[in-house]
Amino acid sequence: MGRYLVTGGAGYVGSHTVLALRDRGEDVVVLDDLSKGHREAVPAGVRLVDGRCEDRRALAEAFGGGRFDAVLHFAALSLVGDSMRDPLRYMAENLSTLSAVASAAVQHDCRRLVMSSTAALFGFPERIPIDEEQRLGPVSPYGESKLMCERALDWAERIHGLRFASLRYFNAAGADPEGRAGEDHDPETHLVPLAIDAALGLRPPLMVFGTDYPTDDGTGVRDYVHVTDLADAHLRVLPLLEKQSVRYNLGNGTGYSVRDVIETVERVGGRRVPHALGPRREGDPAVLVASSAKLRAETGWSPRFAKLEDIVRTAWDWRAAHPQGYAGARQAA
Ligand SMILES: NC(=O)c1ccc[n+]([C@@H]2O[C@H](COP(=O)([O-])OP(=O)(O)OC[C@H]3O[C@@H](n4cnc5c(N)ncnc54)[C@H](O)[C@@H]3O)[C@@H](O)[C@H]2O)c1
Ligand SMILES: O=c1ccn([C@@H]2O[C@H](COP(=O)(O)OP(=O)(O)O[C@H]3O[C@H](CO)[C@H](O)[C@H](O)[C@H]3O)[C@@H](O)[C@H]2O)c(=O)[nH]1
Question: Which positions fall inside the NAD-dependent epimerase/dehydratase domain (predicted)?
């Protein structure tokens, strides 16, 4: 059994990765300030340190209980639109959060770290699918902040021997297939939960951002990857860190348009998705689809939920069972 620290483990991708680690019998500590995450998303048997990654006392408490085999770092500000309004906060906070956690890891003799990176590193990509050789060119402070984090880790490796994996997720979606966790953001900006909530009548009609993209149906195309498959990728890169640091683009490799997502939600849920057509959202590329060939070849990773319909079904089931998200679980407790 190993010991792992998961920062941001009360959040969406982090909590699903905590479940994957626990399912494997690992010992897990979560460090999360609950600014976006939920206490109820941290499963029983996992210690939650409620504090900020930049806070020395919280770090000392998290690292205090014994040596970690690796740190999985999810905690970050992660809203692209928000970052366009508050660029310096995004740059400063995402870098200082990563730096504080990486320094503490080195100090406590843990030299393995996995970081959540993003497709936003590539900005408006030159070619589809996007492999690791493509030019990095973020077009938002959020993307830029994650690129700075990757560069900081390069230096930490050279100077402190801290090995790292940077996983550049494309569009995380779906929920734990056993119904133990799901997506509950406030504000919610992601397409799949917004479309589901519109269908369930939990939110206003969905606004389709742009119908004049150079895509088959004019709407934006993305690579939706199941959150449990993302969690699995984290587990699979851990053994590689014994030898080297790695960077992988992480998606299913198939693009679906906004209209595809709407139709899929309607099919899965058996209800209409009320929606209106609107202008493009500033900074949105037309198409983002990953090549995860390198990850597949080097770790054997392969998505269990390759079809959009299967991803959407898990998200639908969780939301239909938790119309108030984790707040419902709080009231029931
Ligand atoms: N969701 C996606 O589609 C997606 C895509 C690409 C990359 N990412 C990256 O993956 C990671 C997880 O994303 P998510 O969707 O699960 O986000 P999330 O907001 O659900 O989770 C982040 C968690 O970190 C916590 N947190 C934030 N700042 C903190 C701090 N300074 N100290 C302690 N805790 C802090 C929040 O309370 C939250 O629980 C982020 O780094 C994000 O940038 C997400
Ligand atoms: O209300 C909405 C929300 C989204 N969209 C469209 O749906 C697609 C997906 O949008 P999301 O907001 O769900 O996801 P993004 O592709 O914008 O963002 C994702 O990829 C980014 C990198 O580009 C970041 O990593 C971010 O965290 C991650 O969620 C886009 O074409 C977007 O224009 C709509 O039409 N209406």
Answer: 5-251
Which atom of ligand 2 is least distant from the CA of 191?
A: 13
Q: Does the domain spanning 3-171+226-249 belong to CATH 3.40.50.720?
A: yes
**Geometric angle at alpha carbon 291, from 116 and 162, rounded to 5°:** 35
How many CA atoms, within 13 angstroms, populate the side-chain half-sphere of residue 306?
A: 7
Closest CA to 319 of 198, 189, 169, 171: 198
β-pair type (171-173, 224-226): parallel
User: What is the ipTM metric for this complex?
Assistant: 0.98
Q: How far apart are CA 150 and CA 279, in angstroms?
A: 33
Query: Which H or E run contains 160?
Result: helix 141-160
Query: Is the CB of 294 inside a 6 Å radius of any atom of ligand 2?
Result: no
* Known active-site residue 169: no
* Per annotation, catalytic residue among 90, 142, 169, 326: 142
- CA 197 – CA 206 distance, rounded (Å): 9
Cα separation, 250 vs 299, in Å, equals 12
Q: Which of 16, 2, 3, 37 is nearest to 304 (CA)?
A: 16
Nearest CA to ligand 2 atom 23: 120
* DSSP of 9-46: TTSHHHHHHHHHHHHTT-EEEEEE--SSS-GGGSPTT-
Give the three-state DSSP class for 73.
strand
Answer yes or no: is the C-beta of 194 below 6 A from any ligand 2 atom: yes
User: Atom 23 of ligand 1 has which residue's CA nearest to it?
Assistant: 8
CB 93 within 8 A of CB 148: no
0.90 cut: is pTM over it?
yes
Q: Which of 284, 289, 308 to mutate for ligand 2's pocket (most ligand atoms within 8 Å of CB)?
A: 284
Per domain, the residue ranges of the chain are: 3-171+226-249
Q: Widest CA span of the chain, in angstroms?
A: 56
Q: Summarize pLDDT for 142-191 with one digit per residue, the tens.
A: 999 999 999 999 999 999 999 999 999 999 999 999 999 999 999 999 99
